[in-house]
Structure formats: C-alpha cells, structure tokens
Design a protein that fits this description.
By secondary structure, this protein is of the alpha/beta class. Helices cover 40% and strands 17% of the residues. It is built from eleven helices and eight strands. It has an eight-stranded mixed sheet with strand order 3-4-2-5-1-6-7-8, sandwiched between helices. Helix 6 links the parallel strand 6 and strand 7. Helix 1 packs across helix 11. The protein is globular and about 55 Å long.
Length: 245
C-alpha cells in the first residue's frame, strides 16, 4: 500500500514545489515508483522543477474524467519510476468533486509506493482539496518568524480537518542563520508545534537545475539536493542526520 503525502505551506514563496519535486526525484532514484500530482490549479509549475517542462503531461482531471487511465501518467525521461499528473489548466478546486479525487488516490496507493501532491499555497479550497485525502502532510516554511507563524496556523487548519501526521520542512536556510538568531531545532519545533522532518539550505543550483530542465538530484548531489535526499530517506523510516545549519 503506497503512501500519499501532500506538501503545503501557509504562504507562497517557501519553495514548496521545489521540495516536492526534489524529494520525489530522490525517492525514484532510490528505486521506488513515485507519482507526483500538481494540485495547484491555475498556477501549475511542478513539471519545471521535475525537469519535465518540455513534455506534455496529462492532468489528473483527465484521469478523473476517464479520458486517460492512471497507467498513462507521464513517465520521466531519465528517472524510471517517476511519473507526473499535472494540474488542469481550466479547472478550479470547486469544479472537481473532492470524493472523486479521494477515490483516485485510493487507486494510486495500489500502483505506486509514494504519491507526492503539490498543494497551492494558503488555506483555501485548493489547500483542502490537496490535503484532505493525504496520509501525511509536510508543511514547508522558510526560517523567518512570519513564515513559521503561518506554518503553525496551517497545522491548526489541518488538525481541524482531522490530520494528525504532520511534519515541518524548513527551506532556504543560510549557513549560520540559526546560530546568529540563537535558535535551536527545539525552538523551531516549539514555535510551530510541529516535528521537524528536514532542513534545506539556500542553494542557487535549484534555479540552475530547472534552467537545464533537470531534476535537482540529477544536477547535483550537494546542498538542497542532499537535503531532499535526507528527507526522502526519513520518509522511508531511515535515520539520517539533519544538515548543518
């Protein structure tokens, strides 16, 4: 039975899509069957971070409508086992029955080891659509106090939806930042009320990988790519250290 994981954030600009693509690519590189679903209807760009921008992937709405089958999800050209269903360009969350999406995810669990859903930022209908039927939710935040407060608020909304398996990922951490702020990992967890799954450093190679139409792990094995790999391995239940901060 596969695991469905939604990645969300309380505000835009946290790098949620980059982490979704980075962790998914790392899981696929380690031999798992992984499906990415872009649920950010109207602002889809997960294909760019996956290095699939030049392809024409089908949308999850096409599968729901029966125009394509789940087995026709677009396969990554360089990472066997990594598939994508993009967001529909002309749909909104309120036009798709949540129950139908939940039924699709039940089928996904039978075919894939992991499914990562890239949620829209914020806590509107798109956030609920992407998170409602997920087994686990990763909340992505940057290390500034406002973003961490938003992460805590997002976690509160998820708990009201009945979600309990929540984890925090802190992205775009610059070297020495925590020391200069006199913060510890425990401080971050206390601030958000969330267990910390991983820390991703600020890394310009994220932009370079996307510009070269490559998933991050195929462009470099350092920096943010290594952070994503550590998260992928923690999702497998393996013990790996946090990156230095």
């Amino acid at each position: 039975m596969g695991l469905v994981i939604a990645l969300t954030s309380g505000k835009g600009g946290t790098g949620k899509t980059t982490i979704c693509a980075g962790v998914a690519a790392c899981l696929a590189a380690e031999g798992f069957r992984v499906l990415c679903i872009d649920a950010d209807m109207g602002l889809r760009n997960l294909d760019i971070s996956l290095g699939m921008a030049e392809l024409a992937p089908i949308s999850f709405a096409d599968v729901l409508a029966g125009r394509y089958s789940l087995s026709e999800a677009t396969l990554h050209p360089e990472l066997p086992g990594l598939y994508l269903l993009t967001a529909p360009a002309a749909e909104r969350p309120e036009t798709i029955r949540f129950q139908d999406f939940g039924a699709l995810l039940d089928t996904v669990r039978d075919y894939f080891d992991y499914c990562l859903i890239d949620s829209p930022a914020g806590i509107g209908d798109g956030f609920r659509f992407a998170s409602l039927y997920a087994d686990r939710v990763l909340i992505v935040s940057t290390p500034d106090p406002a973003s961490l407060r938003d992460a805590a608020g997002t976690a509160d909304q998820l708990r009201l939806m009945g979600k309990q398996d929540l984890k925090l990922v802190v992205n775009r951490v610059t070297p020495g930042l925590f020391r200069s702020l006199d913060w510890t990992v425990d401080d971050i967890m206390d601030e958000t009320g969330l267990p910390l799954l991983g820390i991703i450093p600020e890394d310009r190679r994220v932009v370079m990988a996307a510009a070269n139409n490559l998933p991050l792990i195929l462009y470099t094995d350092r920096g943010a790519a290594l952070g994503c790999l550590h998260i992928a391995r923690r999702l497998q239940g393996r013990k790996v250290p946090l990156l230095k901060r």
